[in-house]
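Structure ticket #2291
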Amino acid sequence: QVQLVESGGGLVQPGSSLKLSCVVSEFALGYYAIGWFRQAPGKGREGLSIISTNDGSTHSADSVKDRFTISREKNTVYLQMSGLKAEDAAVYYCEAGGGYLRHAEYHLWGQGTQVTVSS
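Resolution: structure written out below.
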């Protein structure tokens, strides 16, 4: 059973905005948090923003907190990104787990959606 499905990635220009979506199963929503992570080639999985499944509280990494916003509507978790930079290019994953922004604390994730930022 597919638990999380990311979508919304694509090729964008620097400075543009993009909204990613993640359809989350009821099972995945039973975890403490849903988080957006990303991984660029040759780099580790980087935690960006998480939202609590309990009270909707959010936390974001300092590197993106001024540009990225996580939100949830029913079974869909969104990541609104603005002011995209070249270094934002990565595969973005939606993950379910019980941690904060540490990938090791998450247990489920989807196939990812590619975000490419052109020069």
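Closing remark: The first strand starts at residue 4 and ends at 7.
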